[in-house]
């Protein structure tokens, strides 16, 4: 896979466990849901939370909670809203990577299955989103911002439509950490870079963001 070219490439990121260290808060929110519904915890480890949560919450919660899905959703966001501001941090190497993209005038954005308003709050906290800049808000797209979530290609179609002027004719490269991210990249016809799991088939696999930056430099 060649190095990125600012005249050709547009970098699209996943968010959770790609740029943001948030799975601890997500896991605790899931445990809070089970306890609040007085249901037995179906698992206790973060690894299972990650595997279960590959899709958008609105996609997999109905399978977990059936006719109590609205209660479960309310409890999840009750916990997450109270804890994500102080519990979600940048992953090691994320700052350096984003700084490199700005330095090289490489355009980038995010398509995540996290609810869009929460995604943008976290991006703003990280200093990566300026609400006064009209191009910033639409380039951080999350669940509920359109009718589609990853791995559906419609999520990218919507992103492309509202960011057409910003993207120009640039070709995306999608960067994530899960099988759903590789599937999403395949569905929209772009190359995928997968971080942290070399068992997922992708155009390139790296261990972490430091390795990815070193590859690009």
Give structural notes:
- With 217 residues, this protein is an alpha/beta fold.
- The chain has two domains: 9-21 and 90-216, HAD superfamily/HAD-like (Rossmann fold); 23-87, DNA polymerase, domain 1 (Orthogonal Bundle), CATH 1.10.150.240.
- The chain is built from ten helices and eight strands.
- The strands form two sheets. Strands 5-4-1-6-7-8 form a six-stranded parallel beta sheet, with helices on both faces.
- The longest helix has 19 residues, at 69-87.
- The two termini are 14 Å apart.
- The mean pLDDT is 92.
CATH classification, class level of the largest domain: Alpha Beta
Can you say what the CATH homologous superfamily of the largest domain is?
Answer: HAD superfamily/HAD-like
- The rough form would be described as globular
- Strand neighbour order, sheet with most strands: 5-4-1-6-7-8
- State which percent range the strand residues make up: 15-25%
* CATH fold-level label of the largest domain: Rossmann fold
Low-confidence stretches: none
Mean pLDDT reading: 92
Number of helices: 10
Largest sheet descriptor: 6 strands, parallel
State the secondary-structure class.
alpha/beta
The CATH architecture of the largest domain is 3-Layer(aba) Sandwich
The radius of gyration over CA amounts to: 17 Å
Task: Count all strands and give the number.
Answer: 8
- Taken in chain order, the helices and strands follow as EEHHHHEHEHEHHEHEEH
Q: How far apart lie the N and C ends?
A: 14 Å
Count of domains: 2
Helix content: 40-55%
Walk me through the topology.
Elements: E1 9-13, E2 20-21, H1 23-36, H2 46-52, H3 57-65, H4 69-87, E3 89-90, H5 94-103, E4 108-115, H6 116-126, E5 140-143, H7 154-162, H8 164-167, E6 171-176, H9 179-188, E7 191-195, E8 204-206, H10 209-216
Parallel strand pairs: 1-4, 1-6, 4-5, 6-7, 7-8
Antiparallel strand pairs: 2-3
